[in-house]
Specification:
Blueprint: H1 4-11, H2 18-25, H3 29-32, E1 35-41, E2 47-50, E3 53-57, E4 63-64, H4 75-85, H5 94-99, E5 101-103, E6 109-119, E7 122-135, H6 145-148, E8 152-153, E9 157-158, E10 161-165, H7 171-184, E11 191-195, E12 216-220, H8 224-234, E13 239-242, H9 248-259, E14 263-269, H10 273-277, H11 280-288, E15 293-298, E16 305-311, E17 320-325
Length: 326
């Protein structure tokens, strides 16, 4: 398996404009292993994020906390990088522009900043680009093993589970590995991933770039509520996996899945059970008993730290098992 630094060089750095390609390419391997983001903003310093730390990058490739010493990204840098990412056809990527990001081979993502063009209240496209955010796709194969066995009963049925996590705490990474484990497990479960924002499987031209298992089908770019119903009707899943629920339509579709005898694992932004219970839609789902288990994540010991696993959670919460493992 290729090292992460080699993937970054061959799947991300090659898209950067000439000067920035040389600057970021000069970073030593131990820095690239920790690289999470590369930020290009016109007339502002080139920034990189390594774990929890952010740095400006000097023209020599050195990292500094003094942002005024960083290489200043020019308009031409952004234009050339964007042309490279889009193969010189940025406006041919209509759906990607509507969503605000482009997925690269390897599952890496390029977030877009610029002027948003609306039509009848909906996003039509983007133009006048001012910033690009390259986010490195990372897999942590095996990270879900400590909790996977706790979310399955009778050897085959998966508990309807909600994973709660603040941003950048590893909920999608955990969700992806749970998907892989159940898909490739001995129970021969059919799994369907509703990947509205292409974050779980990170499909590139329809093909998952990250390991979601051999018995997994992906509905890439599909709205969550529509995708859940499509999956139940046409793909005979034992388990449906969906990221970041929160709309009324999501709650209705999730309930329909459960009523049809299909297990669901979903995620939601939040800090803990009390936090999400303040939101009417989530509180309603919890009170209804749809979720049989709830997993709370943090970054206390690094991304993916499992703070607690609740069984049979309600809007007030009960029987909790605190773990605190990373």
């Amino acid at each position: 398996m290729a090292k992460i630094e080699d993937k970054i060089r061959g799947q991300i750095i090659l898209y950067l404009s000439g000067p920035i390609k040389e600057i970021v390419g000069a970073l030593p391997a131990e820095r690239l292993r920790k690289l999470e983001e590369i930020r290009l903003r016109v007339e502002r310093p080139l920034l990189v994020r390594l774990g929890d730390e952010e740095y400006a990058v000097k023209v020599t490739g050195e990292l500094t906390k003094q942002y005024n010493l960083g290489y200043t990204v020019g308009e031409e840098d952004l234009e050339r990088t964007l042309a490279s990412v889009s193969q010189s056809s940025i406006y041919a990527l209509e759906e990607e522009l509507k969503r605000g990001f482009i997925t690269l081979r390897g599952g890496h993502r390029v977030g877009l900043a610029g002027r948003v063009v609306l039509a009848q209240g909906e996003i039509k496209t983007m133009r006048d680009f001012s910033g690009l955010a390259f986010r490195v796709a990372r897999e942590m194969v095996g990270c879900a093993e400590p909790i996977a066995s706790r979310l399955i009963v009778t050897g085959r049925r998966i508990l309807n589970t909600l994973i709660v996590s603040p941003p950048r705490c590893g909920k999608t990474t955990l969700l992806r590995d749970l998907t892989r484990l159940y898909s490739d497990g001995p129970a021969n479960l059919n799994v369907v991933v509703i990947d509205e924002r292409s974050e779980i499987a990170a499909c590139y031209q329809g093909i998952p770039q990250l390991n979601v298992g051999n018995r997994t089908d992906v509905l890439d770019g599909c709205p969550k509520a529509l995708g859940m119903m499509m999956a139940v009707r046409s793909l005979s899943p034992h388990l449906v996996v969906v990221d970041e629920i929160g709309r009324p339509a999501d709650a209705e579709a999730l309930q329909e899945c459960v009523n049809a005898g299909v297990s669901v694992i979903a995620t939601a932004h939040g800090t803990d059970l009390e936090d999400i219970s303040r939101r009417p839609i989530m509180a309603g789902l919890l009170a209804s008993g749809v979720f049989e288990a709830l997993v709370v994540l943090s970054r206390r010991k690094g991304p993916g730290t499992v703070e607690a696993v609740y069984r049979n959670p309600s809007s007030g919460g009960n029987s909790v098992s605190k773990t605190g493992h990373g």
